Amino acid sequence: PVPAPAGATHPLAIGPVGAPEATVDGFVAQYLRNLNFDRGVTLSASTANDRFYALAYTVRDYLVARWLEGVRRYRASDRKAVCYLSAEYLLGRQLDNNLLASGLSDIAAEALAQCGVDIEELRAQEVEPGLGNGGLGRLAACFIDSLATMSVPNVGYGIRYEYGIFRQTFEDGRQVEQPDSWLELGSPWEFPHPEAAQTISFGGSTEKYDDGGVTRSRWVPAWSVQAVPYNYMVPGYQNGRVNTLRLWSSRANHAFDLSVFNAGDYVEAVRAQTFAENISKVLYPEDSTAQGKELRLQQQYFFVAASIRDFIDVVLPEDFDLTRLPERAIFQLNDTHPVIGVPELMRILVDEKKMEWDAAWAVTQQCFAYTCHTLLPEALEVWPIDLLGRLLPRHLEIIYRINEEFLLAVRERFGDDEARIRDMSIISPDGAVRMAFLATVAGSKVNGVAELHSQLLREKVLPAFDEFFPGKFTNVTNGVTPRRFVRLANPELSALITEAIGDGWLTDLERLRELEPFADDADFRTAFGEMKAANKRRLAATLQARDGLTIADDHMLDVMVKRLHEYKRQMLKLLHIVTAYDRIVSGEVEASSVPGRTFVFGAKAAPGYDMAKRIIHLINAVGSVVNDDPRVEGRLKVLFPPNYNVTLAERIIPAADLSEQISLAGKEASGTGNMKFALNGALTVGTDDGANVEIRELVGDDNFFLFGMSEPEVEALWARGYTPAEFAEKDAGLGRALDLIGSGAFSGGDASVFAPIVSNLMNDDRFMVLADYTSYIAAQDRVDDAYTDTAAWQRSAVLNVARSGFFSSDRSMRDYIDRIWHTEPLG
Ligand code: F55
Prior knowledge:
Family: Belongs to the glycogen phosphorylase family.
CATH architecture of the largest domain: 3-Layer(aba) Sandwich
Catalytic activity: [(1->4)-alpha-D-glucosyl](n) + phosphate = [(1->4)-alpha-D-glucosyl](n-1) + alpha-D-glucose 1-phosphate
CATH superfamily of the largest domain: Glycogen Phosphorylase B
Radius of gyration: 28 Å
Number of strands: 24
Helix content: 40-55%
EC number: 2.4.1.1
Bound molecules: ligand F55
Number of helices: 33
Protein name: Alpha-1,4 glucan phosphorylase
InterPro entries: Glycg_phsphrylas, Glyco_trans_35, Pyridoxal_P_attach_site
Largest sheet: 10 strands, mixed
């Protein structure tokens, strides 16, 4: 037990004072107290924002006591903690999650009803923190949810961007980006600690000095900023555990300001402040691409340096022997964005703590592990050495030394094989630091995020490293949290499952297997069908209110939601839609015989990614033509609600019948949306890519629509020589679809608008859209057929749910714990 502060005589002064009473009356009292004393308003004078804040504060009040108690117990223990380093956390709304985790959902609903407050209105008030781009950021959010639920000590470290992922609007069908000022009305979930700010330095030079006969190096930085921690609670699911997410915000360094003030230049001082605050100002809206921008490197070093120092100086006991750091911390690198932490820890150990290089390197190697999320060469980060040397000169020296010693070891093993040395050097021939190489050399383990991806990573991207470091490479297949993506997003399905098999599945998702027999139970299937219909109505209401869009009751819902990227092949989906449209208007099929389908897209494009933006424009253009053409008789509808985000995903996924996972084989590292759809009873039409491979193996071929080339077939076609135009000639449907797009049929006759897309496909087609078209259309025809047999479709859908329990992020966390982290729960 932690002793009371000196002089404390009151018994309550020892630890957290405890939560308010978990009853409706207790909740009401606390709610009104918060409204009055924190917001400074009465209920009758309150705004919806006041009422939302008071509700969030009340939920918070119940969680805080557990949080503080957990922090106290962790610090009194000597447990190893997982320090998850991620530049992105795509959290989604917090209110419902925190209500569910604390077991207060029913009490809160009743309490607010007694106060005459509409809880739905308050839910809608919450702005989701969009502090991530897509899969990578959402994965981090799922992982910290699972760690808290499994009582594993964890601090999530990241950046509190003032502007998260941009808000997308459409103007004449084209994407327009608006700033996401998610903090405009404040956030009730954060606990700022300006008093605990850290100084983070940049620039300057290095020097050697004599330290009692030993020559040492040190960094003499030129400028610095303050990193202010903001803490967020990460509650486990009804287990009394609350972990911490600590996001850093940049602020001007006052000492630095003052010197400028003294020189009398007020305007310069204010400019300097703005400069400092720029570091955490905005999330880079890149996904699966890397831009070597200086501000981005500043962001990376800023949060990683603050996080490592926080763990060593604040979380660990004073005077902790850092040779034992691996017993207390594992720093998990979420892709290469935090890899600058490797030379930073070396700098702390060698320059500041005066540890021998070899000892420091041994500690560092045990403290880091690296997760790779891509195979695309354009997404592998590299930092030009002049930029790195200007911003972090000491770190560059340390990287050089790491590389020297590594290459020496390679020479010892393989002899002076210069080609191999060049291929494995952390510094590329054109003078840039290859961050994935640095992470691989430094990490105790390197993992890919699905079986196929991990295999390709070892065999195709880093084979020399796999040979040099046997046992370092491993796979951990991604997962998603069933609390948010089943229980909260799909309460109807959750009730059905719990009624059938109890509620153990929420923390042990493999138990969904027990649902298998219900696939053959006609009553259960009917209830399942009603659940889907109810979710479609709920989505319809959302889209109507949000965007004025309408969904027909009797349509199959065919969904493709994910970032817009050529490798994900939204174009292939469009070619299918154009083909279905063309079959009707050309008279090949009767509109009345076409099964009704609504295609739903959700996708943001990186603002600088021209082709992706053009494809967005084309989706909207095809949608307006198809939706308004009377010959279609409403059988096909294309909906593209703007600003796809976590909140919208939670509405769309539970309503989907068909999940589109159609990337070129070998390109999608894993996918996690694919898992969310299967768990919500959608059938997948997909390629053998990423985690689709594992989904299909688990749910069975009969319950999955496979199409397209496999990864080895893709390789073979490249090797033979791929000429996309040949495919357009061979398949008349494909030729017509491309002609329609290229001729201006979707751009009011102006062929120039979408011709670049068509010529790109015909002449380049890096992602082999045309090569997989024929097979995709055939798969979609099978989908149409299958959907007419409602009982069989629902049986497959139930089996998808029952057999997807593997894809819980709790299982992913188990795998990381057993194979990489070797941590234990805090009992
Ligand atoms: C963000 C910034 C940069 Cl500079 C590069 C990549 C990203 C990014 O967001 N990547 C990303 O989301 N990758 C995805 O990670 C998911 C989780 O592992 C995978 O499921 C998905 O396949 C992969 O594309």
